[in-house]
Amino acid sequence: MTAVSSTIPTHGNYHNYHGYRYHHPGGHDSRLALLPRGLFANARVLDVGCNEAQSWGARRVVGVDIDDTLVRMAWRRRRTLWSHQAPLSSAGTSRPNSKRERAPVPASPPVADYFPASCQHMFGPLPIPAADTLDFDISENTFPHNISFRRADWVNESIPEDDGGYNVIVAFSVSKWIHLNGGDAGLSRFFERVYATLVSGGTFVLEAQPRESYIKARKLHPTLQENAQTSQMRPEDFEATLCSIGFKPGQRLGEPGEGRFRRPVDLYVKR
Ligand SMILES: C[S@@+](CC[C@H](N)C(=O)[O-])C[C@H]1O[C@@H](n2cnc3c(N)ncnc32)[C@H](O)[C@@H]1O
Question: Pocket of ligand 1, candidates 65, 169, 187, 205: which has the most ligand atoms within 8 Å of its Cβ, to mutate?
Fold first, then answer.
């Protein structure tokens, strides 16, 4: 499988997607506010089409994206987030300088924007200590070690983390691209893979783009044009397809976003 990193974003692989959608990278993502409280707590999460990716307070988040460059950017962003975060030994946060100086474990997460971006520009990113080292109380289940990224076309390729199963799979604004590139068969395969890799009782969070938004996207490539013409499945049918695979009927969490980014966010639970 050849790596995708094209200047024509035929997979929705926009290189400044979050800056464009939220007006600045790292901007507030209104979709996350809709999710049930505690959904990510102690969960293994897969984010399909992660683009630049985010940390959601989960035990483990794996971001997978078809675009090589986006995956490299996601690793860089992880390092940046770490570099901006407060040292846990200061002000009631919990990145201690050593086990002996350990501060009481705080109820709240570490302060995210403690160091200004200029610090990283002037001095470079902070090194990330290995998990479970003597000097730092961080483990594989704490940020930044709990977040990793893989380049893969997840519809057609598995990744090693799939073997452990996921409690939550998130697919934000990626179904249209899978549908246009793989047709109805590709989208069905995607939904079946989501079902197969979720643990029993696991949750699928789907933000599907509406059919109208396919019109502009399909002009990017003749394959997309052809699949748009021949596909029979419509976003309104996705719930029926997912139920036929084995999910419980979906729950509409809301339609956040503005303008053409106002899209439904639905939640499906694996029986
Ligand atoms: C429009 S962006 C959405 C990004 C992010 N999920 C969000 O909503 O903020 C779609 C992303 O899905 C990725 N993508 C498309 N098809 C994919 C596939 N088959 N496997 C993995 N990633 C894919 C693209 O590279 C792109 O980063």
Answer: 65
